[in-house]
Amino acid sequence: MHVKGLSESDRSLTALNLTSGHNSIDLRSWGDADKECQNRMGYLASIHSDIENKAFVSWTDQKNVWIGLQRNGWGGWDWVDKTPLDFTKWAEGEPSDSGETGEACVELYTNGGWNDAFCSTTKGFICKKHKTYSTCAYPIDQRDDCGYDGISEYECISRGCCWDEAGSGPHPCFYSKADSACIEKGGTCKDYRYVSCELGYETNLCSGGAENQCCFSCASDDDVCNDQADEWEMGDEQCEAGGYGTCQDDSNYCASGSYESGKCGGPTNRRCCVGWCNTWL
Ligand SMILES: [Ca+2]
94 alpha carbon to ligand 1 midpoint, in Å? Predict the structure, then answer.
């Protein structure tokens, strides 16, 4: 069966981690997760390289998440965004189910391995959104080069920059001069409603609407920062026990609108976003 794939330049460029805070309300069956992604003009994420696989793992808050791979009924596996299956990372002994009615959907383990699992179980998930002009919407005379020769689309977007193969410059990765204040401080401009940043957000450093804020988080190779974040989490029990809430820097979006003090580890601005009335945006 031939499935028309998206061209290389149309692929994926923005990935959304929709599990920020991993509140239980954010968990979905594979099918519902994919619907949620499509509502946002994306798909459950496809993965085409080890770099991409590692990047997604680093976004998953140490939870297994759904990715966009599903059994196709012909003994193989298809990405829901119809990109080719050009990379796999099955965990040892996986896929473990040989039938067509069992474990037909694929989750990404926190160690980067893939597992076929029952589609009806609920998990966090990661969407990928196709590149749109709006990701590089600023005029050419308001762009600066971002990154370095040979930078990949994925790294470019991860840095908070945008990818435009039609643009002029040594490589197709740019940032808006309007976002440079954030990038120069070591942050990336994100839609703060969808992405939780462990070191919090600063406002007024990013272009676009008020939802675009400057996100600060530990770089994946910054052991000191990551160890500190782990230490903070050890004091989170009072907030997170029983699914009560989620500890995060209180500049992060809290769907319930209600932060409580004294229930989280770490600095005083790390507070408990009360989860009981969290609603999906
Ligand atoms: Ca399995």
Answer: 5
